[in-house]
Specification:
The chain is of the alpha/beta class. It folds into two domains: 244 residues, P-loop containing nucleotide triphosphate hydrolases (Rossmann fold, 3-Layer(aba) Sandwich), CATH 3.40.50.300; 67 residues, Alpha-Beta Plaits, CATH 3.30.70. 39% of the residues are buried. Strands 5-6-7-3-8-9 form a six-stranded mixed sheet, sandwiched between helices. Strand 8 and strand 9 form a beta hairpin. It is built from 14 helices and 13 strands.
């Protein structure tokens, strides 16, 4: 018997008055994989997540989780999924253990407190008040609250945003162990390195549509070049100076110069430098590196996901933004029968 997909959507659409936030999204997330949903602010990824989580209703289209639609199966599905939201507000004056016990009370067959705390490495903090925890510890507690029902499917909405590098990497290890234990993970993130290291497959969204889908390696291969040359010149040169050179697969403008996707760096770099010299210019900036998922994102969306993160605060002031709609969806989540 073929195991059903953990998540399946068909022609998913969500409109807010004149704004189409999700525009015909088809997704299939396999059981047991870590799947990343990426996109610039306003791409529709948070709205898509909240429809999948049962926090928002789709305008049209079909959604199935674990082989079941939300309609008629909401109670069963809520017991089989776990959700870590972008902003999890916990009670400051409860201890870590009391918080987990509170969330355990919501489910018919919860995991033991010690087992949940061990999964997120919080055993030693069980007696600490929530307000005394570090940012990384609070994120781990939020994940613990999502794990108490022993979910088959776990939603993680930007789980490491705001954490320092050490705390972020510690959380990565926890997520890897959850994935190795057989759980299906769906995550959004503003960190391309995180997506590249954790995700088996990734969907990139833009303007409500999925514009690319594949493993990190497959997406990077679509660039057409294995290496990147970042170059700026004085005086500035036009894109055509590099775009037609042998070995250059793509030439993308960026502040102060160009980002070149190239084959055979050892042969292409001398050609690039010779062309700069031939045109009477000199390099003002030069760097080389291996192509990454961020390069794919830039080519597809015209912006870096890391740069996009800096715009997130401004986006929350926009009533049509994903983050603003997300907070409203969470306020509405208590509606019975969802």
């Amino acid at each position: 018997m073929v195991e059903p997909a953990a998540i399946r959507t068909r022609a998913l659409v969500k409109r807010f008055e004149s704004i189409t936030a999700v525009d015909g999204v088809d997704l299939e997330v396999r059981a047991g994989e870590c799947f990343g949903l990426l996109g610039p602010n306003g791409a529709g990824k948070t709205t898509t997540m909240e429809i999948l989580e049962g926090l928002q209703r789709a305008t049209s289209g079909d959604v199935e989780l674990l082989g079941l639609p939300w309609s008629g199966h909401a109670t069963e599905l809520r017991a089989r999924i776990g959700i870590q939201l972008q902003e999890t507000e916990l009670y400051d004056k409860l201890s870590v253990e009391e918080t987990v016990r509170l969330f355990r009370s919501f489910y018919p067959r919860p995991l033991p407190v010690d087992e949940v705390l061990a999964q997120v490495d919080l055993i030693e903090k069980r007696a600490a008040w929530v307000e005394k925890l570090s940012g990384g510890q609070k994120q781990r507690l939020a994940i613990a609250c999502a794990l108490v029902s022993d979910p088959e499917l776990l939603f993680l909405d930007e789980p490491t945003t705001g954490l320092d590098p050490a705390a972020r990497r510690a959380l990565w290890e926890i997520l890897r162990k959850l994935r190795a234990g057989g759980r299906t993970l769906l995550l959004t993130t503003h960190y391309m390195e995180e997506a590249e290291k954790l995700c088996d497959r990734i969907a990139i969204m833009r303007k409500g549509k999925v514009i690319a889908l594949g493993s990190p390696a497959e997406l990077i291969a679509r660039l057409g070049g294995e290496e990147i040359i970042e170059i700026g010149c004085e005086p500035p040169l036009p894109a055509e100076a590099f775009a037609t050179l042998e070995g250059v697969a793509a030439c993308l403008p960026e502040p102060g110069g160009f980002r070149l996707s190239v084959h055979e760096l050892h042969a292409t770099l001398p050609r690039v430098l010779e062309e700069v010299r031939r045109r009477g210019a000199r390099p003002s900036r030069l760097a080389t590196r291996t192509a990454s998922l961020d390069d794919v994102f830039v080519e597809l969306t015209g912006t870096s996901l890391g740069a996009d993160e800096a715009q997130a605060a401004a986006a929350t002031a926009d009533p049509t933004s994903d983050s603003k709609r997300g907070r409203k969806a969470r306020r509405d989540a208590a509606e019975p029968g969802r």
